[in-house]
Amino acid sequence: MPEAPSSSSSVIALRRGLIAHPERNPGMPFDAAWLDGLRVNQSAVERRTATLGTRRTVKKDAQAAWLLKAVTCIDLTTLNGDDTEGRVRRLCAKARQPVRADILSALGIAPQTITTGAVCVYHRFVAAAVDALQGSGIPVAAVSTGFPAGLIPHPLKLKEIEASVADGAQEIDIVVTREYVLTGNWQALYNEVRDFRAACGPAHLKAILATGDIRTLSNVARASMVCMMAGADFIKTSTGKEGVNATLDVSLVMVRMIRDYQERTGVLIGFKPAGGVSTAKSVLNYQILMKEELGRAWLEPELFRIGASSLLADIERQLEHHVSGRYSSFNRHPVA
After folding, report:
1. Could you confirm whether 59 is annotated as catalytic?
2. Which long-range contacts (CB under 8 A, 24 or more apart) does 309-312 make?
3. What pTM was computed for the model?
4. Which domains does the chain have, with CATH numbers?
5. Which of 75, 167, 236, 249 is catalytic?
6. Is 173 tagged catalytic?
């Protein structure tokens, strides 16, 4: 296994803005012993997450600053059956300037200094998104491996990843085979994700666990650990297409697995909640979770992303209220 980077030096570099991404996760050989003691006390998890929005409050200027930081962590996403190239290009324009210039000016922020963390699209639109974002520094993330169900043949999954990387995707959001988790076939899950990691080449791998489908928090914990062992650079809650998507409960379990993996290996792993994070109030809870459980570095887009679209409109609306004292209608804050 390649030598793991220093955890403390990587965190310091992230805070200073010296690196665009933390060191790649090299992964490690599969070790089933790491999974043996992973049990989750659901009632304890629920008690912990219930305090996030009650014991901590962020108000006024501080809240505006936190919300602007959240904007920089959004993977601005369109994953609909009726997507068109025109819609994707409009989304990319919004990613370049996610908050209206007059609002930024009132906040004392220079235009073009705030962008979203990435734009996330199907493979069909990767090349168009890369073209639309040229020169912006905003990466394109492609959902892959038969998203959202992940039930196409394995060789086709690898070819889809390779095609998206060839078209310019810098991040690949893969879906795991839920059957492997539900049946406890952890070696098969490891092998699958390891293959995906190899197919990504230089692109960062974000592993989607589809937590709404894998039933238990203990499954979430074990699947998180296996994906990180296999080389995932991020672990992600959901596709956004499940009946239940991101929740604070599953997020707490996943970020504690990230902390455990970092303590064992020194490698920093990112986290991405997706689906259901649609209001400014809800995203603040996720930011508090990241700060309290993992630390300041996990408030930056290098280690924290939010898969969302409508969230941006609500954040922009709350920022306008902060500077004007008035709430405006949502149609004045188009997502794209």
Report:
1. no
2. 309/76, 309/77, 309/78, 309/335, 309/336, 310/278, 310/335, 311/70, 311/74, 311/277, 311/278, 311/279, 311/280, 311/283, 312/71, 312/74, 312/76, 312/94, 312/98, 312/116
3. 0.92
4. 7-332 (3.20.20.70)
5. 236
6. yes
